[in-house]
Amino acid sequence: MTKTDHESLHYMDEEAKRKKRMKWTIGIIAFVILQVVQALFFVLVIMKFKSPKFRVGEFDIQTLNVGIQASPSFNMSFVAPIRVKNTNWGPFKYDASTVSFTYGGAQVGQAIIPKSKANFKSTKKIDLDVTLSSTNLPSTSNLGNELSSGIITLNSQGELKGKVTVMFMFKKTKISQMNCTLAINTATKAVQSLTCK
């Protein structure tokens, strides 16, 4: 073997080692970039804790009695469909709470929400029996005018406090608020409009 052949082999050997090192370097850089992308996705999407949405849905009124004459009044009963929509990547476990129904700021009824949980990326459905009565309203209320117009405007308010747990170890306390306005049509005995904030 001549000196040039020896140098040529040495050069080819060095070139092969350089290419191998380059492949390893590219592989390591690609692996690191992949890990950074996965970590960013995890932090920005999975670990983003949001307050679940807490709402009352539309319902059918089972009974509705109104008095328009000397003393305006109403009594009604219905099954309120309460919905807890959890958009987190972990379950939302909440404590027992209440939903208050008010007319003109005065409470006319309430319903108790039992302690439970809404699974990840799902909506927990709770049906509550509700009875409302205007007997505790002050005599200065606008109830007579509303009953004459055929619409009763009610508000439903509530608060759910609980914890969202992601990957069985990351926990964060979240509070969900309900603030809905309902217009009840006394002629059709139905919910005419429902808006929630």
From TrEMBL:
Transmembrane spans: 24-46
Keyword Magnesium set for record: no
Gene3D superfamilies named in the record: 2.60.40.1820
Domain spans labelled Late embryogenesis abundant protein LEA-2 subgroup: 82-175
Keywords, in A-Z order: Membrane, Transmembrane, Transmembrane helix
UniProt protein name: Late embryogenesis abundant protein LEA-2 subgroup domain-containing protein
Organism annotation: Eucalyptus globulus (Tasmanian blue gum)
Source species taxonomy: Eukaryota, Viridiplantae, Streptophyta, Embryophyta, Tracheophyta
